Queue: 4 jobs
Job 1
Amino acid sequence: MGKKDSTFDKPLAQNKKASHDYFIEETFEAGMVLTGTEIKSLRGGRANMGDAFATIRNGEIFLHNMHISPFEQGNRHNPSDPTRARKLLMHKQQINKLYGLSRQEGYTIVPLKVYTRNGYAKCLIGLGRGKKNYDKRESAAKKDAQREIQRALKEKQKVSY
């Protein structure tokens, strides 16, 4: 048994609504400030990013409304609030760039997924522009068409054998 060569693990939590509600124009990777029991719970898959959003205050970026369930075998230092604001770690230049871009009309900072890289919890955040209802219908139609194409190709491969 050799050492695992991959630097990425599978996503621990994903915001599936983000691609439905926003056009993601640019992505950034940020470290997360977590307690020991939070990271254990996160690795156990007990996190939800459904209503999560990010804000920038005083030159620091924070992740709000990400629910990490308390770790069952945790000690008394377990955070009592599972949806507390968690600080994200980014370079000052990246934060300033993100702040400038997010101040434009219609743009927001959207957390996309949480994963581990080399043992550290990372959050992929994106600069998103809100979709209108007709954009959502168009995206759904494209996705359905792509699914039909894949289904037809798969059927054709079955017949050719």
Job 2
Amino acid sequence: MIEDESNSKSLMERQTTGEDRVRMAVRQLSEPRTANWIASEAGWSHEPTKRVLEQLVDDGILHRDESGTHTTYYPDYRRQAMQEAMRLRDSGHTVEELTDQLAEMKAQIRDWEDEFGVESPNQLRGTLADEALDADQEDRRREIAREWEHLQRRIKIVGFAIREWDFLAPTTEPAEASS
């Protein structure tokens, strides 16, 4: 299995440029990351990675944060959410299917609220201070808290896609240029 993974990675590296790999790594960001981290993920050196990142900042695709000890880069989360909503609209799912998915996600969160007697992922994390919990129970609560946060983000995106179903419909007409 490890051999297959290394073969597929080298195949990806042979069929893509370093810039392509940086762009792919950036699309996967869910939190701010340094240029070194992104370069490592892309399998490319630091300086050219940094040049690509700066181009993406100039193009409005990424944001740069220099407030910490290291400069980090993060995507425009609004753009990502809009693209994900469009992908959902274009995926072949019906609005009813997305509505069912939304209901399932919300039901899962309600189940966790009832099971643990908390109202948020951080409140669930706070229960880790309970000395009666064993390591498996702590691990399970941490994993549920991460999944809960993920579902909260998905609920917002799926809800937006449902609300804006007609607006997000693909169009075959080119946009008119304003004069």
Job 3
Amino acid sequence: MTNPDNDTENIFDEASIIQGFDIELSEKNAQRIDRLVDDYENSILSRVDEEYSENSTFSDRLADNIAKFGGSWTFIGYFGAFLVVWMIWNTLPFLKPLHFDEPPFILLNLCLSFLAAFQAPIIMMSQNRQNARDKHESVIDFAINYKAEQEIEDMQSHLHRIEENGVKNKEEFSSELMQIKQLLASIEAKLENKINDR
């Protein structure tokens, strides 16, 4: 079984070897980059939250709060306790004069129907607003990814230019070196001729 720490170190080592160009991608630098990216994402998300709050009306916030409470264990606990108290109150024989909803609990069924009739549209309103927000965030994510892709393409084209220039410079250097060798060979030949002529 492989050790994830060793895998991480190998990735950093490979990245620093591949990177070259006088920029060492050490673990410290990688953590700094991760921290900057996280800060950038958090600032964008906080801006989306601000816009979401600014564009929310009172009824929107009320629908969000009702949906948040209606979909929680707190609501289930309170509502379950309310139902139990209602049924016990209306079934205990010694409380017969205080009964207001005898079994089969017709008033309770009416209350539950009203609750379901009003709670469902409120939750749907909140979900529609959440869907709109998610769509907005997905557009931002797409824009960030598109921008990052463009920057990566720019870096790749820049690296290709550097590589092409390196190959070109190497060819020029090789041709100049050949010329220098030829000059040295001709000078050597002339010197030998002069020595032989003497």
Job 4
Amino acid sequence: MSDDHQHSGAREHDHPIDWREHGVKVIPGDSLDPNTAQTPGMNRAAAINRARAGAEKIWAGTVVIHPNAKTGAHHHGDLESIIYVVKGRARMRWGEKLEYVAEAGPGDFIFVPPYVPHQEINASPDEALECVLVRSGQEPVVVNLDIEPAEKPEGVLWKDPIHR
């Protein structure tokens, strides 16, 4: 391959790429796929993955946690996760005994490193928690852990020292 073709975006043998088929994809919000790994207490739906969009390195979708609900303790193997809060109030607990806590609201991003045991909690008694979730890989890894929940949020008014 000559130098002037090396960075042209062309694939081997200089066949033109069908950008219509292999270009930008828009996934309508009402067509997300709920057939993905689930954690009790939350509804995940896939928007961007290999099957739906041809993604190789990232996965994206939505998560809804019902008012007052919490997930079980879980982790996502070697995947990195980013959660963007669209609506509602998220309380995250993490650690071997879920002993650490932080809260996030609309517009906030949450980063969850690989293998971190965590629990997502909807801190609102009457509003659903709606988030966008992005992961660093295609495998929908969810390892549900047998850790006694640090907190049973139903009917408990509780604030950590950071968010008084």
